[in-house]
Each structure stands twice: as structure tokens, then as C-alpha cells.
Amino acid sequence: MAIQIQNLDLEEQEQLDQIKHFWNKWGNLITWVLIVVLGAYAAWNGWQYWQRRQAAQASMLYTELERAASAGDASRIERSLADMKDRYGGTWYAAEGSLAAAKALADKGQMGPAKEALVWAADKSSDEGLRAIARLRLASLQMGDKAYDEAAKTLAASFPLAFTALAADRRGDLLMLQGKRAEAATEYGKAYQGLGAEGGDYRRLVGIKLNALGIDPDAGAKPAGAAS
Predict the structure, then answer these.
(1) Model confidence over 171-180: pLDDT tens digits?
(2) pTM of the model as a whole
């Protein structure tokens, strides 16, 4: 029995020596790997918490902006939007808030601030869909002010595929205001084709615009001189 115990002691000592040798060789590397992994995990959790906190606080400001818009209080709208852009400019709420503020301000006749809100959303939003909506609305305000060159620049920007037909329709409207009927017909044609059968009422409206130019959009033919 004493021999067996001695053998066990020797085996345990050998195992301990192996562990010590392994740790002396790889211990520092293992420690640093663990530090990096745990640090990355903590940083990820911290980032997620910060994002949630930012979104929650931005949501509160967005609610305040909506209240101001409902009340038609232009000064409160501008203050709320300025706070949102300064403090939470990277959130969805800031871009959506800019669109809501622009509509409310335009309804109040505050075209300058409305345009500024749309320019910010078009340039700063991280969502390409919101950027596209902002550009389309901005172009409409610019056309309303007869700032046709500015509207043309706005509509010359790149649009996501889902918005290309809408942009073509808006360009058609701009060209009609400039008396360029042939170019307008081309853009309306792009919009009509791009909207497809699922375009519904919007597509029918574009079709009416083409009909007014003497064009049957479904036939794809254009009477001579109709769009001159």
C-alpha cells in the first residue's frame, strides 16, 4: 500500500510539473487572450446599453417634437429638433423627427426652417430610405419656391431602387414647370414603368400625366409632336 501511495504521489508530482511547465510557457498568452475576449464582450455590452439608452432618450424628444407639431408651435418644433440633432443625431428618431418637423414647419409657412430640416435628414440620416424621402420632399419645396436649379440638384442625387420611380416622377414635374414637355414625358415614362402594376393609384396618377401629354403609357407610343 505504501508503494502504491508513493507511486500516486510521484504521478501527481509529474502532473503538477507538466501543468507548471505548460503554464510557464503559455500562461501569459492565455491571460492576454482572456483579457481581450472579456474586454471585447464588456465593450459590446456597453455599446448595446449606450445604444438603447440613446434611443430611449431620443424617443422622449421625438414625442415632445410630435406634441409641438400637433400644437403648431414652430418655435418648440425647432428647439426640439435642434436638441435631437445635437444630442442624438445618429439615431433613427433624429432623421424621422426632421421629416416630421419639416412638414409641420411647412404647414406653418416656415419654408426656410423646413428646408433646413430636410437638408439635414438628406445629408445626415444613416437610413437610405429616410434620406430619399427627405430629398423628394425637399425638391417639392424647392419647386414650390421656383428654385428649379436647386430642385434639379436635389433630384440628381442617387436614390435607392425602391425610390427611383418616385424620383423620376418628381423630375417629370420639375421639367413640366420648366416647360420641357418632351423631357418630362421621358421621366414620367420611367416612373410609370418603374412603379409597375403594384403601383396602384400612384401609377394611375402618373398615367394621367402622360395622357395629358398625349401619350398612352400602356401602348408605349407617343403621337408625333405631342410632347413638343
Answers:
(1) 999 999 999 9
(2) 0.70
